[in-house]
Amino acid sequence: MSATGRLSLRLEEPGDDALNDQVFEILQTTLQPDCQISLDTAVDQLVGLLPSGQTYTSEVTTFLCGCYEVAEQIPYLHPSMDKLVTIIYLCLNSATFTGGETSQVSSKVDPRILT
Fold it and tell me: Tens digits of per-residue pLDDT, 15-67?
């Protein structure tokens, strides 16, 4: 796989957990170099899968484990790694996830990653 080529991601145990499958599908689509879905849309879809204002739940654990499983398959220097880190950051600092309080650091996300 080249440093900027299409990613060939796979889920270790598809069908084992519906939430993990949904997280994987969103990430697999969004992280492809030719994806037309904005990161904001992907973040909205992912945050919609998580319970509002509850940071320590099994759903959040499943979300983070799914992100980790995908991250293990992306070469470190591939542009999609930056996208994944940004998606995780934006999800975990979203108003829905934090119960209405957003991080002050969110304004420091490199805008080039959001395109």
Answer: 889 999 999 999 999 999 889 999 999 999 999 998 887 878 899 999 999 99
Beta-carbon-side half-sphere exposure of residue 90 (alpha carbons within 13 Å): 24
* Among 40, 47, 43, 49, residue whose Cα is nearest residue 21: 49
Dihedral angle computed from the Cα positions of residues 38, 39, 44 and 46, in that order, rounded to the nearest 10 degrees: 120
pLDDT digits (tens, 9 = 90+) for 79-110: 999 999 999 999 988 887 777 655 544 445 55
Domains in the chain: boundaries:
18-108
Predicted structure pTM score = 0.80
Give Cβ neighbours of residue 44 (< 8 Å, ≥ 6 apart). none
Looking at residue 102, the DSSP 8-state letter turns out to be P
Phi/psi region, residue 100 (left: phi>0; alpha: psi -120 to 50; beta: rest), is: left
